Amino acid sequence: MRVLEILEKRGAILHGHFLLASGKHSDVYVQCQRAFVYPEDTAFIAKELIGKAQEQCDIKNIAGVVSPALGAVIIGYEVARQLDKPFLFAEREDGKLTFRRGFEIQQNGHYLTVEDVFTTGGSTLELINLVENMGGLVDYALAVVQRQKEIALPVPHDSLIFLDLPLYEPENCPLCKAGIPLVKPGTKQQQKTSS
Ligand SMILES: [Zn+2]
What we know:
With 195 residues, the protein is of the alpha/beta class. It has one domain (2-191): Rossmann fold (3-Layer(aba) Sandwich). It has six helices and ten strands; from the N terminus they run H-E-E-H-H-E-H-E-E-E-H-E-E-H-E-E. The protein has a six-stranded mixed beta sheet with strand order 5-4-3-6-7-8, with helices on both faces. Helix 4 (73-83) links the parallel strand 3 and strand 4 (87-93). Helix 3 (39-56) packs across helix 4. The model is unreliable at 189-195 (pLDDT under 50). It binds zinc ion. Zinc ion binds at residues 17, 25, 168, 170, 173, 175-176, 182.
């Protein structure tokens, strides 16, 4: 449980009332970047992720590591650095993940994907499709934290920490009903809910 201790120590697990990117509300928000501020912690977390990958795939055959920008770039890079493999990140352009900057996927190359948090796994799913559309293969998908029990990915996947956290639709969120101010993480603004 050392990774969970690091995340808690660095304030990466926040308690309150949060508006998530999916539009749902939650009483916990995971901000892994708070831990990635510290290179030593990032290196430790990456090493743990590599341990998971080594149980599942042949690291020698891995062509590279890919992550979606921006939240997973630091941890993805650190995993690649420790494996001595190339690292690529995909960015959103008009809402769609794409490789810019002349990044290329090796044809029939085997890749690992690294995310900071799986909520629904949506970004990783999009990344897997992107890599495969460009002629690569994804052997394994990793995340530091998984927020939900069920995530649907077409490749084997795992995370270091599993938090089975309830997500609420705004219209039946108990935190809204209790009048707790809603916070959109990443902004300084706090919105008062009116429901
Ligand atoms: Zn709410």
